[in-house]
Amino acid sequence: MTPVIALRGVGMTYPGPPPVRALRPADLAVARGEYVTVVGPSGSGKSTFLNVVGLLDRPTEGTYELDGIDVSTLRESERTALRGKRIGFVFQSFHLLPYRTATENVLLAQLYNGTRRALRRPAAREALARVGLGHRRDAVPTHMSGGERQRVAIARALVNRPSLLLCDEPTGNLDTATASGVMQLLDELHAAGLTIVVITHDEAVARRGQRTVTIRDGVVTSDG
Amino acid sequence: MADLVTTASPDSAKPDPPGRSGGTGGSGHPGHPGRPRRPARRRSRVAERSRLGLRDLGAEALAGILQRPGRSVLTMLGTVLGIGAFVAILGLTATAAGQIDKRFTVLSATEVGVDDTGTARSQGEQPDPAISFTADAGARVQALNGVVHAGVYWPVPLQSPRLGAAPDLQSGSAGDGSGLAIYAADPGALAAMHPTLTAGVLYNGFHEARQERVAVLGAAAAARLGITRLDAEPAVFINGTAYTVVGIIGDVERRQEMLLSVMIPTRTALAAYGPPSTPSRAKMLIETRLGAAQLIAHQAPIALRPDDPSLLTAIAPPDPKSLRNDVTGDFNTLFLLLAALSLVIGAVGIANTTLVAVLERTGEIGLRRSLGARPRHIAGQFLAESTVLGTLGGLIGTSVGVGLVVGVAVSRDWTAVLQPWAVLPAPLIGSVVGLLAGLYPALRAAWIEPVEALRR
């Protein structure tokens, strides 16, 4: 089966002066349905890894295949479309629009990918129900707890049925109890077959994955 | 048509902001030398481009405006003022000019005066005492095409005459008319004054030809003399000579001073008191048809004295066309400049607020990019927001301007004049202002790198 993520010799050097080797050439494969956590200290290259895998940035070397598509040959507009459809992002700071309801925030993910208008609202409701927020769909983020906000963000990431759920410090802004609730949700989503990559510096979070990838000084090593 | 992006442009790489390449942003990878020119067919099907329908774009722009309603209203204020001033100024000048035209045409535009300058060629020179108007002056001018009424009049050359309702009156007693003016005026001149009679009739050509001793009184003069009714055939006495009062004039539209005077036929005056003396020489009053005044002013001296037209000077009203142009021209250039200024201020206001919104919403921009929005979608959203703001400002401004014009017109009892070419495109000007103001902030928004934006 085609892996969701296949990195072959992918490295990243930011142009200087002096040039910064943020990511040394690395090979990594994440199979469909896998739950991988990425750990490493600050400045180790985690963010670069996220940007490359999330199609937010182009690596300077190597090839990256997402769902078997060599994305390094794609034009920027196509990478953007691929990012919107196949990757669901979950951010540490949630990135919810404060003046819009939970449903409207989830609807935003369907704005640019050509989803028919009639199908959007049902899909958003379904996604909110899936993260356990069916009863809060008309609430605005300012009236929600941190856990609820992150659930809305996860619902927004899920609504387009992505191949990959890419989480950047999903529990970074949450207290321990709330964080474990969110991690519980990720476990459930994984159990339902979703491919998940969680970037974190929290050991407890990292242990929940099937496999942990460690980045240290730009060097990627996998324990699997 | 519904989609902003339907066709593949040959170069749709993300725009690199000038001066940002080579930084630590991490996006500046100049060129991919080894990559194929076009991706395979399969791939372009897999990665179908992101799109943003017009309806979605409009909804997003509106949501962006409504999430900060107070700020949006304040932002619009400059455009509202600019467009409002624009419409109000054009409307008010048109209304005022229409009003000036109206007053102008009714009275003065149909009036020509002819002065008897005689042989005096320069100021202060004594002209010969002879009257330059011929005896048939009224008839001569009347024959010109475009003349309605014409006649000669002059103050009767009497040094402090005794004037009263009785032949021998003590000064200060009732019916004493000393101080009232005595004018010689032929029937044509009386008609040209547009008199309204309160009693009796005007004397006519018959009285004139026979040098009858008749008089017409102005309303004020009649009151001074104590003559209100004519059924007893009252008379006024000028130095003891009786003149039968045939009519009392209640009001005139021209030569208001006649209301304070006693008018007698010119030939009667000539026979009794001689020709008019310098400096109060004879004048002619001509009423023309509308638009004929300039022409008659040119023709009258020639018709009156073909042998020496220079003895007479015709005074025509200013050309109404040039007058109106003067008035509106002065108003328009000055105030339209102010309106343009406030529009510029409005545009700067919108640009500033949109720019602030872009900086404030950097995180949102990054999020939208991660959700598949292309730079042009981001630019389009902010451009749409500023354009909607400008259009709303334009609409409100137009309404305010129209209301102002109508309000002023009603309060002054004027007829409001609003030119469609000024009112109809006004909201559109607001849209253009909003669009232009949004260009730079929208480009700034499109240049924001998602990687940078999401870090916030």
From TrEMBL, chain A:
Asked whether the keyword Phosphoprotein is assigned, the reply is no
Q: Which InterPro entries match?
A: AAA+_ATPase, ABC_transporter-like_ATP-bd, ABC_transporter-like_CS, ABC_transpr_LolD-like, MacB-like_ATP-bd, P-loop_NTPase
- The superkingdom of the source organism is Bacteria
**ABC transporter domain location, by residue?**
7-224
Sorted alphabetically, the keyword list is: ATP-binding, Nucleotide-binding, Transport
Residue ranges annotated as transmembrane are none
Pfam families assigned to the protein according to its UniProt record, in alphabetical order = ABC_tran (PF00005)
GO terms for MF: ATP binding
What is the recorded name of this protein? ABC transporter ATP-binding protein
Could you tell me which species this protein originates from? Catenulispora yoronensis
Automatic annotation (TrEMBL), chain B:
Entry's localization field: Cell membrane
Query: What spans are recorded as compositionally biased (Gly residues)?
Result: 20-31
Any signal peptide, and if so, which residues?
A: none
Q: Which residues form the ABC3 transporter permease C-terminal domain?
A: 337-450
- Annotated region Disordered: the residues are 1-51
Which segments constitute the MacB-like periplasmic core domain? 72-273
User: What are the alphabetically sorted keywords of the record?
Assistant: Cell membrane, Membrane, Transmembrane, Transmembrane helix
Q: How does it sit in the membrane?
A: Multi-pass membrane protein
Q: Where is the composition biased (Polar residues)?
A: 1-10
Segments of skewed composition (Basic residues): 32-44
Record-annotated membrane-spanning stretches: 73-94, 334-359, 380-410, 422-447
Q: Which family does it belong to?
A: Belongs to the ABC-4 integral membrane protein family.
Q: What name does UniProt use for this protein? A: ABC transporter permease
Write down the species. Catenulispora yoronensis
